[in-house]
């Protein structure tokens, strides 16, 4: 292997790289002192540290910590590219809303203060609480009259007890079963 001078720039074809026309610079990793060829784009080297130091070494960890400090809070909440107004849809079909300290209904939601200052609550419970002007108790149940879990209009919501809620759902399932059974019998008789 030839002895190259630090900072020397060569074309890829001269040093056996796949990119024949690209320029490469001979540099030394500031951490482990290993020398290697690094791609030069717009007059600057693409990486200062070697692969091992940037991933595992102290410089890699320090670099990640520095980036973390620089970007802290920059992509959070409404600054995030994925911001949807603080709402998300759960796998159960309910809409969940993020609440922040200072909101009068903040204590109604569930939150983990070690993870984040925000709390989360179901939108239908929040709509009912705002309508009543107070926080709901844990044992108070908000029922969707039409059964559509993301239809959170106040006209579609009612505050009921747990026993009445169970009766509503069991009656709804029985009605649905009976309707399906009758429709199936009608089709069978028609054929």
Structural overview:
The protein has 191 residues and is α+β, with helices and mostly antiparallel strands. Helices cover 32% and strands 20% of the residues. It has helices spanning 12-15, 51-55, 58-71, 123-132, 162-190; strands at 9-11, 23-28, 35-41, 44-45, 87-89, 95-99, 119-122, 141-144, 157-160. The strands form three sheets. The protein has a four-stranded antiparallel sheet with strand order 1-2-3-4. Strand 5 (87-89) and strand 6 form a beta hairpin. It is elongated.
- Class per helix and strand makeup: alpha+beta
* Annotated CATH architecture of one domain: Alpha-Beta Complex
Total number of beta strands:
9
Count of DSSP H/I helices? 5
Helix-residue proportion: 25-40%
| Cα end-to-end separation | 87 Å
Overall average residue pLDDT: 79
- Spans with pLDDT under 50 lasting ≥5 residues? none
- The CATH topology of one domain is Homing Intron 3 (I-Ppo) Encoded Endonuclease, Chain A
CATH level 1 name of one domain: Alpha Beta
Q: What is the topology, as strand order, of the major beta sheet?
A: 1-2-3-4
Strand content: 15-25%
Q: Outline the biggest β-sheet.
A: 4 strands, antiparallel
Choose one word for the global shape.
elongated
Spell out the helices and strands N to C. Answer: EHEEEHHEEEHEEH
Radius of gyration: 31 Å
Tag the structure with descriptive keywords:
32% helix, 9 strands, 5 helices, alpha+beta, Homing Intron 3 (I-Ppo) Encoded Endonuclease, Chain A, 191 residues
